[in-house]
């Protein structure tokens, strides 16, 4: 329980196969990087995991719940940070999260406590009263990650969450999310095309042209040079 299983998932956009029998599983508390160049199928997989659409074939099990058979229970167990920000810039940080809490049936003191705990976890508690539009890009992303934790999911999905951020903001976010996995037992699936966001002990799944090319410990797949290995495997400049 608490992990993620993707079993022989196939998806096509018209005649184009975006995913071909993709299988991997992530254990509870594991940080798994899903690495692939543009067009590898990462966003398609995220769309399937969040049930924006359903796969042609194969199955997905989220924290023990089959997504096709029991979608409500499965979706309740995931938190999602999409590639495109979805923040109301005119509201305070706290208010943005409280609205999200309300969508999950949380209100009053309980919602306040959950919201402040989630912000605290991302080092954002002291920003709760600021207007979201006044935050820099890195803090907005941290706020979105905190929001994805308010309903206490078992699994956190992040689709290229550091796109457009500077080096320091990226490093802070990579660090925060690793700690959520290591310290809170959160299962993390982190889609990226940036090799430097991945640490040797991380779980790594390399996706290319809709297929899994490698699956294992990042340090073992990449050796001393994950970038070189990634380029050799995919032909893509990371
Ligand atoms: N809505 C769609 N309609 C048609 N084709 C699509 C759609 N979404 C993705 N594709 C195609 O599916 C393949 C996989 O794309 P996908 O966006 O999942 O890859 P990705 O790894 O997320 O890439 P990126 O980093 O550019 O987002 C690509 O060939 C893409 O053109």
Automatic annotation (TrEMBL):
Domain ABC transporter stretches: 4-234
PROSITE patterns listed in its UniProt record: ABC_TRANSPORTER_2
The organism's place on the tree of life at top rank: Bacteria
Keywords: ATP-binding, Nodulation, Nucleotide-binding, Transport
Presence of keyword Transport: yes
UniProt GO MF annotations: ATP binding
Stated name of the protein: ABC-2 type transport system ATP-binding protein
Similarity comment: Belongs to the ABC transporter superfamily.
Any Pfam family: ABC_tran
Keyword Transcription among record annotations: no
């Amino acid at each position: 329980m608490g992990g993620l299983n993707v079993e022989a998932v196939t998806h096509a956009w018209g005649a184009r196969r975006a995913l071909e029998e993709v299988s991997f599983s992530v254990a509870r508390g594991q940080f798994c990087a899903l690495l692939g160049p543009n067009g590898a199928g990462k966003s398609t997989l995220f769309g399937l995991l969040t049930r924006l659409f359903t796969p042609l074939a194969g199955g997905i099990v989220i924290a023990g719940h089959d997504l096709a058979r029991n979608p409500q229970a499965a979706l309740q167990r995931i938190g999602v940070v999409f590639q495109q920000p979805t923040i109301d810039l005119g509201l305070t940080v706290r208010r943005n999260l409280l609205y999200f809490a309300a969508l999950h049936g949380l209100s009053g003191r309980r919602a306040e406590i959950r919201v402040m705990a989630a912000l605290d976890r991302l080092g954002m508690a002291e920003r709760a009263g600021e207007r979201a539009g006044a935050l820099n890009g890195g803090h907005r992303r941290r706020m979105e990650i905190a929001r994805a934790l308010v309903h206490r999911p078992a699994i956190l999905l992040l689709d290229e969450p550091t796109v457009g951020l500077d080096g320091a903001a990226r490093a802070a976010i990579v660090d925060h999310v690793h700690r959520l996995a290591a310290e809170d037992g959160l299962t993390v699936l982190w889609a990226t095309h940036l090799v430097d966001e991945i640490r040797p002990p991380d779980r790594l799944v390399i996706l290319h042209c809709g297929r899994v090319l490698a699956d294992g410990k990042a340090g073992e797949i990449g050796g001393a040079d994950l970038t070189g290995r990634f380029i050799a495997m995919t032909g893509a400049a990371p």
